[in-house]
Amino acid sequence: MSKKVLVLPGDYIGPEIMAEAVKVLDAANARFGLGIELEYGLLGGAALDECGVPLPDETLARAREVDAILLGAVGGPKWDGVERHLRPERGLLAIRSELQLFGNLRPAILYPQLAGASSLKPEIVAGLDILIVRELTGGIYFGEPRGIRTLENGEREGYNTYKYSESEVRRIAHLAFDLARKRDSRVCSVDKSNVLEATVLWREVMEEVATEYPDVELSHIYVDNAAMQLVMNPKQFDVMVTGNMFGDILSDAAAMLTGSIGMLPSASLDQAGRGMYEPCHGSAPDIAGQGKANPLATILSVAMMLRYTLASPEAAAAIEDAVSAVLDQGLRTPDIHSEGTTVVSTTEMGDAVLAAV
Amino acid sequence: MSKKVLVLPGDYIGPEIMAEAVKVLDAANARFGLGIELEYGLLGGAALDECGVPLPDETLARAREVDAILLGAVGGPKWDGVERHLRPERGLLAIRSELQLFGNLRPAILYPQLAGASSLKPEIVAGLDILIVRELTGGIYFGEPRGIRTLENGEREGYNTYKYSESEVRRIAHLAFDLARKRDSRVCSVDKSNVLEATVLWREVMEEVATEYPDVELSHIYVDNAAMQLVMNPKQFDVMVTGNMFGDILSDAAAMLTGSIGMLPSASLDQAGRGMYEPCHGSAPDIAGQGKANPLATILSVAMMLRYTLASPEAAAAIEDAVSAVLDQGLRTPDIHSEGTTVVSTTEMGDAVLAAV
Ligand SMILES: CC(C)[C@H](C(=O)O)[C@@H](O)C(=O)O
Ligand SMILES: CC(C)[C@H](C(=O)O)[C@@H](O)C(=O)O
């Protein structure tokens, strides 16, 4: 039975890192007889340049048909001047929303080989393994009404709406609890329920869903305290679950704790477990075209895709082991370079993983 | 000319740390002939227990009359069960709003004597000195409509409104630029203008106000990237200015970078420079009544009050120097204790500062 994967390389370093990830995926495909067929599409700035919109109908139509999507990265200064509704990020937000990819998994893992790369003291981050589960299709990112209006006194006001319904919270809660069961069975829900009504309901529904998971421990933390605790003692967390906006902020902070955001993959899943996979990092315009980009987060996104959506855990493990092997060999792209290791280019890193698969 | 200060000790460790701060304020008052008169009032849980509301009319009336307010900390588990509109935090939010204390200054400074207390590597945080300027009376904290409603399909939805008008952004912008002039003349404005319209206007107004400060450099950063950069390389920032919600999160993260949140004061100013001063930390229910609380943040809040609102920079400097001196003597409350230093109680720490003033 053949499986289809839509590849969306995106902008700036997107195509560079994607080329390496596709190499590795092809190799796994052949070695494990996965029967995966690749299709290519446009998203973000690349789509805007070619088709005049950041999410072309054709990309969306294909995205709905395939089993999984592999995304590089979108956006960058080239499109700073375009109208707001045409910006590359809009394409990303639209595909998340159209496909109802509500469950965003963002692991923050410290690779032992890269322990030195963190800005935190080794004892604070050694062995770090957090999974942030971010709600991705609701909250203030998509809430209506929104816009900029002129008030009666003549001045302008910008406004957005932060909202969550019970069913939106319930489905992300279930995802977080299910994932926690495969880990250390602890869920910490992040809200600001001492101030925001939207998160009062969030907390209530989390409590309600928790009764169905008596084996999983649920705790609650205010978002400001969560940001502090991530800096002070990140290892206290197992799964953190939160809304779209808080998840955006906390997952980036958590990823950076590891010092190796160039290593971290992510998954965005729908109710059926179909998903879009992409690196946690962005399109890095400053290093595009120089062979400096780290392809490992995209390669690890391939592994995540094989595990979560394509039900090929063996192939996933082979890729993850290959990444670990090249790190053991001392190969490093510039972002994770440290004394005593060998700097390699994007392509050389991809080739090394390929050889190890 | 006499000046009036309203003292609001608040809850849990609030009265303990306030007792020490008042000792030090009394001493400075006598030594520098400041003519300060103290009044006492109730806020938060203490007010709720006594008067049935977290911000009694009498407290608010006095607060409007005095020159400055000194606050301990409010809130705690004792009042977990009370109705939302009566919770201690509501008193804090109400006093901020009623007095239009829109400008919240939260310094994140690393005391050289405490360099080891940070969870970050010494070279990342040595010499850290950031000032976060948080808008405190607008944004999603106060935006209407808000609440929990039942949708047509029968399920509930929690909702809040994030909004900023031009004039609200303009006044916080001016405050940030004015403060930057007294420092390194760099303002970094934090928004999420790639997603939120409320912050599109925010960015526009920041640009507009910047034209009046050609000597100050303005840059912009998305909030997710700001959280990352604070972890990776916090020393790149001078003044950061942002809205109420993002400021809540980022200022706590920044404070924690120093490892000594028990050391950090804050100011909340109105248009005329009158203000409320309080430690950055909370009411710490877990250590209340044990003599373990660190009074230095509250003592340094007194210094900040003398400098910003009461125009007594000499007295402010004397208190700050005294704090530095006791740190040099190796005296530490448990939160900032490290090898080779002497653990002292809340009272002993207060007495040591008093002796040094
Ligand atoms: C590009 C931007 C719209 C996006 C977001 O805020 O969700 C990004 O920061 C992310 O986290 O994937
Ligand atoms: C107690 C709470 C309402 C408050 C806030 O969120 O503003 C606190 O976290 C703060 O930062 O002063």
Automatic annotation (TrEMBL), chains A, B:
SUPFAM superfamilies attached to this UniProt entry: Isocitrate/Isopropylmalate dehydrogenase-like (SSF53659)
Binding site for substrate: 96, 106, 134, 224
Keyword flag Nucleus: no
GO molecular function terms noted in the UniProt entry: 3-isopropylmalate dehydrogenase activity; magnesium ion binding; NAD binding
Gene3D superfamilies in the record: Isopropylmalate Dehydrogenase
Coiled coil: none
Biological function: Catalyzes the oxidation of 3-carboxy-2-hydroxy-4-methylpentanoate (3-isopropylmalate) to 3-carboxy-4-methyl-2-oxopentanoate. The product decarboxylates to 4-methyl-2 oxopentanoate.
Name of the protein in its database record: 3-isopropylmalate dehydrogenase
Species this chain originates from: Seongchinamella unica
Gene: leuB
